[in-house]
Amino acid sequence: MSASTSDLRVLKVGICGYGTVGRGTHDLLVKNESTIARRLDCIHLTVTHVASRSLSGTVFGVGKWSTDPIEVVNDPEVDIVVEAIGGLGTAFEVVKKALSAKKNVVTANKALIATHGNELVNLASENGVRLLFESAVAGGIPILKCLREGLAANNINWLAGIINGTGNYILTEMGNRQRLFSEVLREAQALGYAEADPSFDVEGTDAAHKLAIMASIAFGMPLAFDKTYIEGISSLELDDIKYANELGYCIKHLGIARLSDQRVQMRVHPSLISSDELLASVDGVGNAVVVNADPIGSTLYSGPGAGAEATASAVVADLIDLARSPRSISQAHIVPSLGFSRLVTDFEILDIDKIESEYYLRINVEDHVGVMANITGLMEKFEISIDAVIQKEKSKNCVQIVILTQMCVEQVLNSVIAEIENLKSVRSSVVRIRVASFE
User: Fold this and answer.
1) b/e for 408-417, b at 16 or more Cβ within 10 A?
2) pLDDT in tens, 176-188
3) Which of 10, 253, 293, 302 is the most buried (most CB within 10 A)?
4) Domain segments of the chain as ranges
5) Cβ atoms within 10 A of the Cβ of 386, count?
6) What pTM was computed for the model?
7) Annotated catalytic sites, by residue?
8) Which residues fall within 8 angstroms of residue 268, CB to CB, at 6 or more apart?
């Protein structure tokens, strides 16, 4: 049964920024209007004010448009503000002002949440409103809702994900077609998968923003982007991808968060993962996250991680969540933005040299008798066990030795690497890639 006109409550949405995310959100609200209406019954979501510095005229179906996003925030008729500007400067000002004005906010801005989220979440709570950001992580995959609500009864042990489509596309092309990083990056830029300045994607900052948000919601701790270890993929070579494949692995750029004994790991870096793992089959620009929790075990979430439609899907889902909330709702009944009413502030966040992992090492050496014995002797000296070894002739008098270690502390491994690099027969720096264990 549909609501009568007199029963209908209209929630007016203001969109700040009318690029890919802002326009995509507006388009989806119009396109799926009938489905959204059936979900909400007595509530109608409508965009009434849009702000964009690039607008040259009115937006179809919208009564007001501005070049200043603060005008949207100050509009007394706007109930919900969608921040789709991006970046930290103006976006931070807009969201802060909207929350202070007791307006609910939806944003897709992972950099903003990862960097200023603690302040903004507290501000929302103080003003009795909500800050939602499902679209900030993994695009159309509802991973934050799964962590915050679907897995609310579980203790989350760890999560690992491919959370940057650009990097995954590059590694897929390098692995499947033996193409150079620089060549694939140029193609990704031409296809619109990578920005003109791709550093946030290929050097891991984008993934680290998303990992910090997921870890906070998973473990119930304040956002800690500044303590996340970040390593990119720009230095990966085809030899490493090829040798990893020979050993039964592929290389993916992963974000990994783990909680054990009150200690948290948060790290983004290239990882060897077994070719049998589900994440190994996620290719191209796709995203995927594995979550391990007690009692449910491991669950996998995958899908499109970016693009207008995927991101808009998550933004509009947040708008629907806000529309479903009663007009007057006590703070006690609001689902906390970070999933927990009380955050743990004394977890130890481990430095990267304190983690334990298995490792892939590639060592370029002169082809002399005794070289292998010297290297294995150093490994034995530091009590690091070897799981597998392969040896490849690279050129005349040069051999590449590839070693898979068993589990060891990274600080200890660093000491071994330093001594190996001091051997006269070693020609260059040792290449080290961590092996991701999903146990």
Assistant:
1) bebeebeebb
2) 999 999 999 999 9
3) 253
4) 5-132, 143-304, 355-435
5) 14
6) 0.94
7) 210
8) 204, 207, 208, 211, 228, 229, 230, 231, 253, 254, 255, 256
The alpha-helical segments, DSSP class H, found in 101-145 are 110-126, 143-145
First to last CA, the chain: 50
Q: What is the CATH number of domain 143-304?
A: 3.30.360.10
CATH code of the domain occupying 355-435: 3.30.70.260
DSSP 88: S
Q: How many CB atoms lie within 10 A of CB 20?
A: 18
pLDDT in tens, 20-39: 899 999 999 999 999 999 99
Name the DSSP class of 426: B
Q: Which helix (H) or strand (E) holds 258?
A: strand 249-260
Instruction: Determine how β-strand 9-16 pairs with β-strand 80-83.
Output: parallel
- Please tell me what DSSP assigns to residue 195: -
- Mapped onto helix, strand or coil, the DSSP state of residue 423 is coil
Q: Which of 48-62, 138-152, 244-258, 279-293 has the lowest mean pLDDT?
A: 48-62
- The structure tokens 């990083």 sit at 181
Length, in residues, of the chain: 439
